[in-house]
Amino acid sequence: MTSSMLRPPQIRRASTSSSSSSYPFPTHSHPTPHQIFHLPVGATKSDVKARYYDLVRIYHPDSPHCRHIDARTRHARFQSIRAAYDTLMGKGFNSGAGGGTIDPVYAELERRRRAQNARRRAAEFADGAFGREGAGAGKGRDWEASADDRWKDRIILTVGVISLLIGIGPALWWRSTSIADQAHAAAAANLAQARREAREFGAERREEIRRRVKAHKEELERQQMQSPSDNSSPDETISAES
Question: CA 107 → CA 41, 49, 102, 113, distances in Å?
Fold first, then answer.
């Protein structure tokens, strides 16, 4: 066996100016940690650590080398690199039934899914237990509405008030309109009655006024005719008698 075969594999280190083309991220689904790190199966931990630093420089979400990739893909790739690093360093390495390595990304997703299901079951159980306590003895902690619940309650209350106003608004407007129409009709009727009375009794009053004026004039004329005879002298009276 030659010395070249016993020589450890040379690790190609990326410089600070390297881009993602030096260590392209695998395009197929469920890549193995060695495929992500572009390392052979017999790579040492020092090689893994060195390659991890190179990959972090390239695939970190804030790195300028991957700004052309959308944010979700950048974060997913970086999480896959970290999971692969933990697996290669022996922190999260597991073997499958066939002897192959389990994809760390898939394992992390499964762990999160199980944790989420467990939290949901615990919340459902707590809600059910709280409901039973409230329906039974009525003891237990008081329920406090969260900010989201209060916000929803305000929206529901506002919508209810608006619906109520829309429902009773036409009735109130129709009632006010009816009252105004009734007042207008009453005023018009009073005006018409006043005009009829003026037509009926106006002629009689005018005739009465004319009679009074005529009588007053006649009285004045009689007084004027009687006043010269009352003012005559005694000599004129004696001569008139002789």
Answer: 20, 22, 7, 10
Residue 101's DSSP bridge partners are 95
What is the C-alpha separation between 77 and 209, in angstroms, rounded? 114
d(CA 52, CA 14): 11
Please give the structure tokens belonging to residue 81.
């690199």
The Cα–Cα gap between 14 and 53 comes to: 9
Packed helices 71-88 and 104-135: angle between N→C axes, nearest 10 degrees: 100
Determine the Cα–Cα distance for residues 106 and 193; give it in Å rounded to an integer: 96
Whether pTM exceeds 0.70: no
CA distance 11 to 51: 8
- Please tell me the distance from the alpha carbon of residue 85 to that of residue 52, in angstroms, as a whole number: 7
β partners of residue 95: 101
Give, for all 242 residues of the chain, the pLDDT tens digit. 444 444 544 544 444 444 556 889 998 888 999 999 999 988 899 999 999 999 999 888 888 888 888 889 888 989 999 999 999 988 754 444 334 445 555 566 678 878 888 888 888 887 765 555 555 544 444 555 566 677 878 888 899 889 888 888 777 777 777 777 888 888 888 888 888 887 777 778 888 888 899 998 888 888 888 876 555 555 555 555 54
Say if CB 59 and CB 25 are below 8 A apart: yes
Residues 158, 168: Cα–Cα separation, whole Å: 16
Which of these, 43, 45, 114, 49, lies nearest to 81 by C-alpha position?
A: 49
